[in-house]
Amino acid sequence: MNDYSLNGFLDTVWSHLSRGVADRKHPARHPTLATIGPDGPELRTLVLRGADRADATLDLHTDAASPKYAQIKADPRVALHVWVPKARLQIRMRGRAEMRQGDRDVFDRLPPEAQANYGGPAPGTPGNKPDGTQGDPARFALIRIHLAEIDALSLGDTHQRALFTATNGWGGAWIAP
Description:
Order of helices and strands: HEEEEHEEHHEEE
Largest sheet: 9 strands, antiparallel
Shape: elongated
Helix content: 10-25%
Radius of gyration: 17 Å
Mean pLDDT: 93
Low-confidence stretches: none
Number of helices: 4
Number of strands: 9
Distance between the termini: 15 Å
């Protein structure tokens, strides 16, 4: 059973997000990102590359030729979802995404196999499987999400849910599960 204080609950959320960055096997490593596309909401799984509690930001990567890049440029409001099965913890987050295309410092730190994802045909283009083309730093984009809200739900023996907001200095309030 998890019996959290509000501060303890927020600490737990950030602990899982940080572990998702550092541990390839942690479920927070692969959040689901929601954007607003021309036909409505769009969802996809990405890799969590950075989590900074002090700045309340999360970093992800994408190809600047992808539909999600255009969707975020058109409307930077995004949402993220993480499910941590062992902890029975759902983390839903909302924020505004900032796009940093061609960030050479970040691109150069990627392994060659990851760099290769940012070149060749645009994502979603019909055709052959990727050929291992060398990556193009101009196609690489860092998505930095400035969080505005974290909604955390623990489904342990005692269901507990809290809402934390940036406008409240990340103070939280218990809400009905």
